[in-house]
Design brief:
Helices cover 41% and strands 18% of the residues. By secondary structure, it is α/β, with parallel strands linked by helices. It has a single domain, classed as Alpha-Beta Complex (Lambda Exonuclease, Chain A). Strands 1, 2, 3, 4, 5, 6 and 7 form a seven-stranded mixed β-sheet that branches. A hairpin with a 4-residue loop joins strand 4 and strand 5. Helix 1 crosses helix 2 and helix 5 crosses helix 7. The termini are far apart. The relative contact order is 0.18.
């Protein structure tokens, strides 16, 4: 595992896939970000809760979550130590490769290598989920770990209010995307290089607003881009 500084995380990568301007603003003009809607915060909380619950399928693991979100070096060091100590299941294992930082929801040791499980609180496995998993696979395997399987652990059906009272294995299913992850290696490498070149620049990219502002996610910088198009006092009734 590399000790070099992280350039961005999988969140930044997914933003860059959607819009390079969004990635640049996220890294260099974070204060311009729109307020996070309450509904999105609720989804984040649900996803986090379900992620903890899903660990029951892989019990007795060790948690490598850092004491603070910016102290990723703690998690990198702890993850390395846990692997060296022979721990076979790690939650939130941290890896840094090619300037990209990722945290694996669940990493478990098999007889022939390691398996990665990304937990999603949704019945549908979207293309974005697969891209998320493929990036983690790229970073973890690039870090030198013998990673041989990559899967998404997701819901069979939407969660009901009493989901915490149900057996976890009745809620979930596992979809294997190892082949997809292996095939994605070259494209991910090229995309990361493009994003690094972009972030090294001193100017905000010129990208027009369009349907990509809403797909696959609503961009965090719609307010900023709208302001650029319609600056104050530049409308029809400018004095």
């Amino acid at each position: 595992m590399s000790s070099k500084k992280a350039i961005f995380s999988k969140t930044g990568y997914i933003k860059g896939k959607q819009c390079l301007k969004s990635l640049y603003l996220y890294k260099h003009h974070y204060s311009q970000r729109d307020p996070i809607p309450a509904e999105r915060l609720k989804r984040f909380s649900l996803g986090s809760d379900f992620g903890i619950l899903a660990r029951k399928l892989f019990p007795n693991g060790k948690d490598a979550t850092p004491s603070h979100v910016h102290r990723y070096s703690e998690s990198l060091a702890l993850t390395k130590k846990l692997i060296q100590d022979g721990i076979t299941t790690i939650y939130e294992a941290a890896f840094l490769y090619d300037g990209i930082l990722v945290y694996a929801d669940i990493l478990t040791k098999l007889n022939s290598g390691w398996a990665l499980y990304e937990v999603k609180s949704s019945p549908k496995v979207s293309n974005v989920y697969q891209q998320d998993l493929a990036l983690q696979f790229y970073v973890i395997k690039g870090s030198g770990l013998d990673l041989i399987h990559a899967s998404i652990l997701h819901l069979k059906e939407p969660l009901t209010e009493n989901y915490k009272e149900q057996e976890i294995d009745s809620l979930c299913q596992i979809s294997d995307f190892t082949e997809y992850c292996n095939e994605s290696f070259p494209s991910i490498q090229n995309e990361i290089l493009e994003m690094k070149i972009l972030l090294a620049g001193s100017r905000i990219p010129t990208i027009q607003m369009g349907s990509h502002c809403q797909e696959p996610y609503t961009c965090d910088f719609i307010g900023f881009c709208t302001q650029q198009i319609n600056p104050p006092n530049e409308g029809l009734f400018k004095e």
